[in-house]
Amino acid sequence: MKHPLFRRLLAAALLGCCLNLPAIAAEGGGTVNAADVNLRTAAGTDSAIVTTVAKSTPVVVLDRQNKNWYRVLATGKEGYMSADYIDYAEKLEAAFGRGTVSGDTVRFRSGPGTSAAVLGFCSAGAELDVLGVEGAWYKVSRQGAVGYVHSDYVVLPGQSLATAVAATVPQSAGSTIVATASQYMGVPYVWAGTSPKGFDCSGFVYYVFKENGYATNRTAASLFNNGTYVERSQLQPGDVICFYSGGYGSIGHVGIYIGENQFIHASSSQGRVTIDSLATGYYNSHYYGARRIA
User: Fold this and answer.
1) Which stretch of DSSP H or E encloses residue 221?
2) 3 is catalytic
3) Using 50, 70 and 90 to split pLDDT, how confident is the model at 28?
4) Nearest to 267 by CA among 201, 207, 221
5) Catalytic member of 122, 150, 242, 253
6) Is 84 a residue whose pLDDT tops 60?
7) From CA 281, how far away is CA 203, in angstroms rounded?
8) Whole-model pTM above 0.85?
9) Which of 17, 201, 242, 286 is flagged as catalytic?
10) Does 242 qualify as catalytic in the annotation?
11) What are the C-alpha distances in Å from 140 to residues 47, 82, 98, 127?
């Protein structure tokens, strides 16, 4: 087996020195209400002018702590603008350009909040079309689907980061596995399937790991022979989790742990690749064990 070093280095190259750390969160949006408003390097009329911004231009508001001056992103540049010239709105739909994901296994949700359903995951370096802002969340388009990603983990054009590390810091292998798996949400369940045209449970796990450079066994039961054993209390994203068949005699189903007591799998009962909970119900009672391969 080999680690997916190429994928890690690609993500690092896409993000420069920004890998794995959050950007400065948004606080909402706003619209410029006057002609040719100055965007400045600091809060004050004596600071240098970055650019001038036209009336009706949408901006992302990053900081309103200074009631007289807001720190904003406007036309691909970051700076300070007098609050007098911004009509603030917590929710604003506008095209803010393409953002870059700056964290591992970032959740793509159905709404602007942590209680909203998880539709999938974004890996570091992924690009999203930002369609609006609502509080600290960006409304984005990802692979044709519209959802929400927390602004902590999206860097817009012209935006600086609160912190940075060297580009050589790698994305974790498990997070890479989860990000790959999430790309196939909704793919149909097909018995013996091992491709994006259709997966069965073990075919899905086999394919996702193969995409990341790992050779695994093909069947559900034999996957338990790969990697190393992991206690349930020590599960990490990317671990392969196995479940008893109905008679508890052998392994009959597998999936990939994604965190927070959830896993992604090709479900025969639901007919597609989907996310389910380990915390309660059938999968809780039929849990067999887990293996760490990546």
Assistant:
1) helix 220-223
2) no
3) very high
4) 201
5) 253
6) yes
7) 24
8) no
9) 201
10) no
11) 33, 28, 9, 10
Residue 200 has pLDDT above 70, yes or no: yes
- Of 42-56, 97-111, 199-213, 276-290, the poorest mean pLDDT is in 97-111
Q: Residue ranges per domain, the chain?
A: 18-155, 173-292
**Of 122, 150, 242, 265, which residue is the catalytic one?**
265
pLDDT band at 168 (very low <50, low <70, confident <90, very high): very low
Sheet (strand 69-74) strand order: 49-53, 37-40, 77-82, 69-74, 58-63, 28-32, 86-89
Indicate the CATH number of 173-292 among 3.30.300.30, 3.30.479.10, 3.90.1720.10, 3.40.47.10. 3.90.1720.10
Q: Count Cα atoms within 13 angstroms, Cβ side, for 21.
A: 13
What is the pLDDT, as a whole number, of residue 24? 63
What token pair was written down for 196?
């994006």
Assigned CATH for 18-155: 2.30.30.40
For residue 17, what is the DSSP state? T
In angstroms, rounded to a whole number, what is the distance separating the alpha carbons of residues 11 and 1? 21
Nearest partner of 181 among 113, 103, 240, 110, judged by Cα: 240
Q: What is the pLDDT of residue 6?
A: 35
Give the burial string for 77-108 (b: 16+ CB within 10 Å, else e).
Answer: ebbbbbbebbeebeebebebeebbbbbbbbbb
